[in-house]
Design brief:
Layout lengths: L3 H7 L5 E4 L2 E2 L9 H14 L18 H14 L1 H18 L6 H17 L3 E4 L22 E6 L2 E12 L6 E4 L14 E6 L5 E6 L21 E12 L3 E4 L5 H38 L5 H26 L2 E2 L5 E2 L2 H26 L2 H4 L3 H5 L4 H8 L7 H15 L2 H12 L4 H11 L2 H11 L9
Parallel strand pairs: 1-8, 3-6
Antiparallel strand pairs: 1-2, 4-5, 5-9, 6-7, 7-10, 8-9, 11-12
Amino acid sequence: MKTGNEYRDSLNDGRLTYFEGERIEDLPGHPLLGQTVDFTAVGYDKYYDPAPDATSPLLGVPQSADDLSDLIPMLHDAGMMAHVTSTSIQTLKTAAGRMEGVKPEYIERMSLYIEHAQREDVRITQCITDAKGDRSRPPGKQDDPDSYVHVVDRQRDGVVIRGAKLHITGASFGHDLLTIPTKAMKAGEEEWSVGCVVPVNAEGVKIINTTYAPRHEDTRAFPVSSQYHYPEGFVIFDDVFVPNERVFLDGETAFAAVFAHSLGLWERLGGLSAFVEEADQLVGLAQLVAEANGTAGISHIKEKISEMIIHATLIRSALEAAVSNCNVGPDGAAFPNELYVNAGKFHAAANYNQMVRHLHDIAGGAVLTAPVPADFENEEVGELARKYMAAGNEVDGEYRSSLMHAIRDLTADAYGGWKFVTNIQAGGGLYAQRIVTRRHYDLDGAKAKALALAGLGDAPAH
């Protein structure tokens, strides 16, 4: 297993990573991106075991509902890079269990890679979303075939791939890139049906980073995003060679969707579990700011908070149902129930804006205009700011401002904007969850119940 410092050292491997037009030679030492390295290093240290044969519990494969239940809070505690790594490992395990009939060497390679990842304590980010070009056209009919990652050369000992993967959280901060098809492929799209693992520092890999991290010298008014931010990577594969032992799919179009659907399941479980924690945070902030404003007893405020509580309870119930009703694959690996994961993720994402709207309505305009901590320290205006931000003698003005900054940072600033988009798009848009929910819902059973209710017995439904 790696310590946090060993993780830091492992990033100095010649990788080509860029930020705001410049190549970053020293990720750990960068004033902004280095913070993400530090967050990740803390996660390493939290779960470090010096025993020579120890493996990280973060990289384990759950075998039961209890294992799943135990894994989820550990991943949130260890940070985003632990989450995306676990998601990658579980994706490979799930895909392997669904690839009966394809080349057995693919399944063996996935198993060996998982063992390698566990042994070396690496961090893996999953690359699925392609550039896509003209989205009305399939991969084979694009003006530029590189719009989707594809094989451009097959050699005796491996393949060469070209293309780009977008929106890859933490891409520059791991060791490997799990690169898989973004969707189902058809006959004639064999060169785009490629799944593999690529080292971040492989020749031809280039990563452009963006981040929502605050750029202010004094970040006290950014209590959330200053403590926890993970840049997004624009990952370019510029004729990258991948050796055979790291190729898990090469031309078998029938199995392209297996990888996409397997990743979608685990991405949505991660999204749902994050929603559950954040829903409680939103409820807590709503209640605290209502109390600070002196409005907690007003009926419409109580109704809004009650609605937020119901939302939080329903998505927590969906998460618990997804875990407790997990399925076990042929190799003993447990994976969450697809119906509850997708229905829960859809409900959480579709109603997130409404919950934030309630919070903003309860908090008021000070979410955007409250003085920052440095203002309260100013000898000329500090006491006046404290006086006018107070709510009577019992609610200190600086405390009330701190609540407003937490709400703004979480929901109404750069980080909040990032969340508004990623809550919808992470794990596939809402339409994807609708499709999978319908696929796994017992629609025939529902029809039978409706026929019985209508007194039609076994009459055919038209």
